[in-house]
Structures are given as C-alpha cells and as structure tokens.
Amino acid sequence: MNELPPVVLGPVVLWADLAGIFVSALGGALLAVRHKLDVFGVFVLAIVTGLAGGMARDMLIGATPVAALANPLYLPSALAAATVVFFGHRLIERASQPVMLFDAMALGFFAVAGARKALTYGIDPLPAVLLGVLTAVGGGALRDVLLAEVPRVLKVGELYALAAMLGAAVVVVGDALGLPSAPVGIVGALATFALRMVSVRFGVTAPRAPGSE
Amino acid sequence: MNELPPVVLGPVVLWADLAGIFVSALGGALLAVRHKLDVFGVFVLAIVTGLAGGMARDMLIGATPVAALANPLYLPSALAAATVVFFGHRLIERASQPVMLFDAMALGFFAVAGARKALTYGIDPLPAVLLGVLTAVGGGALRDVLLAEVPRVLKVGELYALAAMLGAAVVVVGDALGLPSAPVGIVGALATFALRMVSVRFGVTAPRAPGSE
Amino acid sequence: MNELPPVVLGPVVLWADLAGIFVSALGGALLAVRHKLDVFGVFVLAIVTGLAGGMARDMLIGATPVAALANPLYLPSALAAATVVFFGHRLIERASQPVMLFDAMALGFFAVAGARKALTYGIDPLPAVLLGVLTAVGGGALRDVLLAEVPRVLKVGELYALAAMLGAAVVVVGDALGLPSAPVGIVGALATFALRMVSVRFGVTAPRAPGSE
C-alpha cells in the first residue's frame, strides 16, 4: 500500500537478470538431461531454475506483472538456454562441473539484480540483502525440491548463501556510498562468483553450531 | 507498475477456474485418501491442488487479492470436492484411474483460464502460454511436492506440460484471430484433455535429449 | 484491482507476527542444528520458518512490499532467534520437545495475525480463516519440504491444521461480533496453542475417510 512514484529501473537489473536467467537455465537444463527427463522436463527445469527466483522477488516487492512475464526477453533467455543444452549437452558436459559453474555465475548475477531491484523499490538495506539472496538461490532451490533433493543452499560445506550475501551486500554498500551502479554490480557479481568457486575448489566450509558436531 | 485500466474478466476465466478447482480438488482429495491422511489432510490437499495454481497465476500478474480469496465461489468449490471424496471415495475409485482423469480435466480448464486471464491483464502471447501451463500444473505439482513425490510434470513419458501448452496456445491463437472466447476456451480445454488422455492410454512419449538415453 | 482505501493495520497483526516470527524461527533453527547444518543453514531455516508464511499471506492479498521486507523489525526477529539457537541450542534442547512447543506457539500467533490481516484487507470470513491457516502452517511446511520431509500439516494424528483453523475462526467470529481485536487475538492464539498441545500430549486424532483405514 506504499505510494510509490513510477519506478525507473536502471540497466543493471535488466542485464544481470538476463545473464542470470541464461546461465542458471543452462544449469537447470543440464540437470534435467542428467536425470534423463524428456524434452518438456528439460524446458520446465530450465524455466524454473531461470525464472523462479526473480518471480518470487518481484511478487514480494509488488513489481507485478513480474518481469518474467512482462519483459519480452526473460522467457526467451530461458528457452534459448534449454535449446542449447538439449542439443549440445554432450559438448557442455566436457567442461569441469558445468552445473556448478553455471550455478555460481547465476548466483552472482541474481544476487546483484535482486539487491538492486529491492533498493529501487525502496526496500531497506538489510532486507535488500535478503532479497538478493532469495533471488539468487530461489530458482535453484525450487528446481532441487522438484527433483526431490535437498537444496544446495542447505548443504553443509558449501558457501552458497554466504556467496550470494556477499554480492548483494556489495550492491547495498555501494549504493549507500553513492557509487555508480554498473561497476558496483560487476564487482558484486564477481565477488559472489569468486567466493563460491573458492569454496568449492578448496573445500572451505562454514562452522556448525558449537556442540552440534 | 503498469497503468492498467479496470480489468474486466469475461465469464471464461470464472467458469474454467471453478471447473478446474472442483475436478482438481477431487483428484487431490482422492490422493489424500489413498495416502491414508486424516480428514484435515484430505481438505488441505484438495485446497492445495485446487487453488495453488490459480493463486500463483494471480500473484504473478498482480491480480490481488487473488481470486481464490476474493471470489466467494472458489474456496467452497474445493471444499465441496473434498467433502464428496471424503464420503464417496469408494464409489469414485471404481472408475478407471480417477485421479488421472480428474487431473487431465483440470489441466484443460486451468490452461484455458490461465492463458485467458493473462491476456486480459495485458501479458504477451508467449508468456501467456507459460502462465496457462503454470496455472494448470502448479496445484498438482505443489501437492506432489508436499507428498514428497516428484511432480507429474517432470515425469518421463507423460505429455503433461505439452497438453497444457496446447490448450493455452489455442486460447492465445484464438485471441489473436479475434475469435469469441467461450468456444475457443472449450476447444482449448478439450484439446488439452484429449492430448493428455491419448498420451496416457497409448503411451505416447516425448523425446529425450540426443545422446542421453 | 480492488480500490482499497489506505489500509490501517492495528497492533494485533504486528505483535502477533513478531511473536510468531521469533518462536517459529527458534523452532526452524533448532531443526537445522539437529540436521547438523552449518551456520548459514541455521539462518536460512530460521528465516524460512519465520517469514515464509507471512510472505505468502501478504503476496496473496496484495500487501506489497510484504511486511517481512517493509517492516524493520521482521527480519531482525528471525535473525535474533537464529543467533539465540546457534549459541544456546544445548540449553534449549533440555526443554521437553522444544521444536514442537515453539511450533505450537507460532501456530497460534500466525493464525491470529493472518486472519486479522485478511479481514483488514476486506477478505470474507471463510477465506480469512484459510489465510490464517496458511500463514500459520506455511513457514513450517516450506521448511519441511526443504528438508525433504512430509510437512507436519499432512501428518496423521496431529490436529495441526484444525488448531490453526480454531484460532483463525476465533478472530473471524470475534470480528463479526464487534469484539475488540486485542483480547480476541489473545484468546485465538491461546485456543490454537491449547488444542495443539492437547492433541500432541493426549494423542487426539482426527478421523480418516470412511473405509480408508
């Protein structure tokens, strides 16, 4: 019921969203192929992984119709990724851990897009970080739930939520300092990606509650 | 943040929604009885299966309060179906595969209602088809997730998403051609139902990604 | 698309929400510790359990940005509970069945907050009860789904949905009778808590469909 002036989204949200949708849909479609789903399963998982996090974000802040439905580029980005994977998965699988790689890239893009869009809609810094994290982990979490797996975000020994939090925090702090949003967004996405990759490669883990080991 | 004129929904959305709610709630309640849930489990699954898809649709396009809460007939339709099943499940189970049958009917009604409501809210044709599919498969998918099962929409060898897509596409194409919405809606719902039934009866399957067999 | 006057929420929704968030986040964080999740898992489950039900409620009625993002106390309440549990779980676990206890308290607070907020937004009595139940069971259900468990609300022999329904119904009936909302809210929350505790302690169960035993 807030009285909002017309919201002007800068280019950071759009491009970070589109990049996040494409790479996360690649990851979702690859997982579908590995699970031997048919062509519709591949497209459903690509769409879910690519669009669900941003859909949740937009519904929560009241940016409706959500961008995934209102923007003519969002759905095609997910469909393009699914098509690439459907025909090219054997090539892509030659990369080392491609699903993890795509997920890490998407995590950065979405954390930045989510936090930036939250700030644009007048959300405070702390919940803006939460919304960045939710945008980043939401699509992958729903994908994992649909596959009846425990989502990555709850798995021990993977700095997944922390990595998303870092990128979103970069955006929020950069905004508070009045820095230009495009370079700040790039730094945020890179920070998330780097922390996530370092965590996976070197097995960095977060502590458990004292006494729960 | 779109400036929308007051939205006037024709009768197609209302009647397709109500029919979809009733038959999908029948299916959800039957599954609950089969899982030996108690009376509240039966009502919860009927409500989830009947209302969740349309709730997601309405939240995504910003049609809030969602029809499931704002329209006085939606919730009673789901409750009526749950009551019928609670007392009459032994009779209904004599039908051949009643859950599948009710799901197939609901798939058609909801695909039409979802696509039509999306168009009414100014959504473009391609995302309108997506919204029709989401409305159609959402309730059943959430039901399956709550029962810790992989949703039907991801199961191989069932033209479930494609059937919903067909009905939604009929609505979108009919709208583009300026055809009257009621007969187009009936054709769309029938097309979805027919494709789904043919797929189940004759074991029609969709292809997997090349090289993933 | 309803033309709503500026909505004035009384103190009942705020305080019931905050109390519900804190105790349900305690329960969610405790479950995370028991599942040996790391510090981020503990915070994620606390946030999900504490905030998801109210987020769903607010999205469904169009109260966006949702209170969990717009109100400066909501997210900190969940974070505080997670912190308390992270460092103090060994103390808390000495209580008898603390997760069940916190869940029962949260069930009452959220049922009242959900039903009251629904009425304030002009929702009819019957769907207002549904929204109270959804607010009450939503966070815990999502938490259970993320942990790949069947949600409590579907488990046989636990008057979980009925207890939430009772508290929400007290609010709706009290409102219809023109009674003051604060004492009615307290009675509603207590009624839910009491019925839930009695059900657990004495093994009260709901009937199954005739012939499904």
UniProtKB/TrEMBL annotation, chains A, B, C:
Residues 14-89, 101-173 form the Glycine transporter domain. Keywords: Cell membrane, Membrane, Transmembrane, Transmembrane helix. It is a multi-pass membrane protein. The chain crosses the membrane at residues 12-33, 40-61, 73-92, 99-116, 128-147, 159-178, 184-204. The keyword Membrane applies. It is found in: Cell membrane. Belongs to the UPF0126 family. This is Trimeric intracellular cation channel family protein. It comes from Sphingosinicella xenopeptidilytica. The lineage of its organism: Bacteria, Pseudomonadati, Pseudomonadota, Alphaproteobacteria, Sphingomonadales.
